[in-house]
């Protein structure tokens, strides 16, 4: 690799504030000064990046997605507006 053209790549803690979950990984965000740090389980201090959603809080992974009751919606529509079009 050529020197001076690549961003710094190092350990960073990503923290999902909504779920209270954090994980340590490597990222190019290690070189971006966020001003926030966290002491990890190994006793070292790492920069932290707060994210709004992760695999712990995302509905696709947690199974808490809302299921639409399409049959009930159609029946409700028929009850409200079903008789108006008939002559």
UniProtKB/TrEMBL annotation:
Pfam family for this entry, one: Ribosomal_L31
Alphabetically ordered keywords of this record: Ribonucleoprotein, Ribosomal protein
Keyword rRNA processing: no
Domain of life: Bacteria
GO cellular component: ribosome
Family per record: Belongs to the bacterial ribosomal protein bL31 family. Type B subfamily.
Subunit structure: Part of the 50S ribosomal subunit.
Protein name (database record): Large ribosomal subunit protein bL31B
Source species: Streptomyces fimbriatus
């Amino acid at each position: 690799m050529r020197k001076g053209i690549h961003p710094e790549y190092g350990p960073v803690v990503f923290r999902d504030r909504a779920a209270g979950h954090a994980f340590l990984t490597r990222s190019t965000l290690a070189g971006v000064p966020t001003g926030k740090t966290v002491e990890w389980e190994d006793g070292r201090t790492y920069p932290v990046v707060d994210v709004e959603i992760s695999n712990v809080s995302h509905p696709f992974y947690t199974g808490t997605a809302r299921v639409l009751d399409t049959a009930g919606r159609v029946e409700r529509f028929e009850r409200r507006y079903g008789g108006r079009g008939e002559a």
